[in-house]
Write a structure and sequence with these properties.
The protein has 459 residues and is an alpha/beta fold. It has 15 helices and 11 strands. Bound molecules: pyridoxal-5'-phosphate.
């Protein structure tokens, strides 16, 4: 047998092993702690080993069970950050995508995969009320935001040929860190990102936005784009899109909407997202609120020619000669990536397996869980809400105890996992619901675990 070749029998045994490991992991999920009792010392000792000269064979798959003891499991009681729950049909789609090993650079390189990604992009665009948008999948919201601002820059202050000139970008103080990162990487410079103050609901103040733009124009600066956020990472705050859009049009600025956390909730509550279709570009994260396994970001945009202006730089060896527009289609002319994996297959499998209604209902249930928690906290004598709850992130605190110490205790107890945020300078405990496995009992456990952790601090 040649190097790296595996017999059909061995392959079949390995595939059985892999699927049986996946099956037993999925069925054991709810019995696992929300966070493993492990340390960096332990994981380093266990997993930093030399690459063996001779292959270990089938035995290596048994490492999976050891690994599962030291990972953060996707249980229904994980409420930290904005972490989707890894829907299993999507995970099986990932496996099959890797089996097919398509390089989704273009239709010529990956015919079915390209048409499937374009179809799935259409579903996502339609789901959020942006049916006329096109776009592509990418690694996550950060990459989508970077690509969107590259398009904004090319549309308003072209830089690809001559190099970047300073332009100004506006976003709320609550903006995700991926925006300052993108501004820095694009050579716009972080000092040219204006962080606009927010109102009491933590939404961008449009009066302050207008004033900042006017001030920049007076000083001879060149405004190029506004980033509105629908679902700020800490609190879920939704910037006032219709008003921001009006300012963007009046000022001839690019309007990018960062919907990495919240955008897909438009499937369930479109009334909260009016104006999305007026954006020039929109980031979404299917690995967040569409429950897909990582990674699965998405950038949608209205004008394909601007994506071409920003990203098309074809070398001769990839030039496509076809009269048929679909066969000539190339993602690399609209995206940062050339080699791209077949991310769309998990969406194709998972979204059709369950159907649109199931996803809409799961998002609605997450929204309900957040309201339920907010009500439990508001009516609890020892706790208080620290921010409004427009979507599914709930920020709160214990009134009289050290909340940082509570958070450490809650995580150590292993029954629920919370993360934290800073709201108006105050340390907040934070629970975020983007999880199809969460039950109402899991939501109740948040309150009882915080109180139990607070009581432990007295001892
Ligand atoms: C509002 C917002 N934008 C962007 C991102 C970045 O997304 P990703 O982690 O997929 O890069 C996040 C992540 O939580 C987010 O909440």
């Amino acid at each position: 047998m040649r190097e790296l070749e595996i017999s059909n029998q061995d392959l079949s045994d390995l595939a059985d092993d892999a699927l049986s490991l996946a099956r037993s992991y999925w069925t054991s999920l709810e019995d696992r702690p929300t966070y493993p009792s492990t340390s960096a010392k332990q994981t380093t000792e266990l997993f930093s080993r030399p690459w063996p000269e001779d292959g270990r064979g089938r035995d290596v798959f048994q490492d999976f069970n050891l690994i599962t003891e030291h990972v953060r499991p996707s249980t229904g009681r994980f409420f930290g950050y904005v972490v989707g729950s890894g829907e299993p049909v999507g995970a099986l789609g990932e496996l099959l995508a890797a089996v097919l090993n398509q390089n989704v650079t273009s239709w010529r390189s990956a015919p079915a995969a390209t048409s499937i990604e374009r179809a799935v992009i259409g579903w996502l665009a339609q789901a959020v009320g942006c049916a006329r948008f096109t776009g592509s999948l990418c690694g996550g919201g950060s990459t989508a935001n970077l690509m969107a601002l590259a398009m904004a820059r090319e549309a308003k202050l072209p830089a690809n040929e001559t190099g970047a000139r300073p332009g100004v970008i506006y976003a709320s103080e609550q903006v995700h860190m991926s925006i300052p990162k993108a501004v820095a990487l694009l050579g716009i410079g972080r000092k040219n990102l204006r962080l606009i103050p927010v109102d009491e609901q933590l939404r961008m103040r449009t009066d302050a936005l207008e004033a900042a733009i006017a001030e920049d124009r007076k000083s001879g600066n060149t405004p190029i784009a506004i980033v509105a956020t629908v679902g700020a990472v800490a609190t879920g705050a939704i910037d006032p899109l219709m008003d921001i859009e009006e300012i963007a049009r009046r000022e001839a600025l690019w309007l990018h909407v960062d919907g990495a956390y919240g955008g897909l909730a438009a499937l369930a509550v479109p009334e909260k997202f009016q104006g999305l279709a007026l954006a020039d570009s929109l980031s979404l994260d299917a690995h967040k609120w569409l429950y897909q396994p990582l990674d699965c970001g998405c950038l949608l945009y209205r004008d394909q020619s601007i994506a071409h202006a920003a990203f098309s730089h074809s070398g001769d060896y990839v030039k496509i000669f076809s009269q048929d527009p679909e066969e000539a289609f190339a993602f690399f002319e609209e995206s940062i990536e050339l080699s791209r994996r077949f991310r769309a297959l998990k969406l194709w499998m998972s979204l059709q397996y369950h159907g649109r209604r199931a996803f809409r209902d799961a998002i609605a249930r997450d929204l309900h869980h957040a309201q339920m928690l907010a009500e439990m906290i508001s009516s609890h004598a020892e706790m208080e809400l620290l921010a409004p709850v427009p979507l599914s992130a709930v920020c709160f605190r214990h009134r009289s105890k050290d909340n940082q110490a509570i958070l450490r205790r809650v995580i150590a107890r292993g029954r629920v996992y919370l993360s934290n945020a800073t709201i108006n300078g105050q340390f907040a405990l934070r629970a975020c619901f983007v999880n199809h496995r969460t039950t109402t009992d899991d939501v109740r456990a948040i309150v009882s675990e915080v109180i139990a952790a607070a009581d432990e601090l007295n001892r």
